[in-house]
Amino acid sequence: MGRPRKTLPAHGLDVIRALAANGVQEHQIAVALGVDFRTWVRIRGEDPEAKAVWLEARALEQDKLVGSLFRQAMGTPAEYDERGNVVRAEQLPVPTAAMFLLKARHSYRDFGPTDGSGDGRPTVVINLPASLPGDDYAKLITVAPNALPAPADREAA
Length: 157
Prior knowledge:
Structural class: mainly alpha
Order of helices and strands: HHHHEEHHH
Number of helices: 7
Strand content: under 5%
């Protein structure tokens, strides 16, 4: 009989939810749960409730990050109190944040075809004629046997 498999502690789901939603790395989540990293990966794969909580928390983290990046991309106006004092200064739009969001979330490309056809590199197509039957090739040779200059003539030219 082998040793018993480790499971999540009683507060494990709360720990996963809190840490993953705030961008904590999985190694640190494992430490907080008191298990080895490989054990954490096994638990996450085998325990549907743990996996669901982890995925939900990661989605929350993603939403926070996208929202923050969106605010940076769009900028925010200044805010004033009732006496006209500046409470929060205006944040100018950050074009780099806008470009990143366009590329990451909307497949925007600033080079190459935008319709999804190809990978942006030039395409070269060489069409070769079909091979001739033997008798047609013989006719071609007999019609123009000296179409090319002799090797000695080519060197002189």
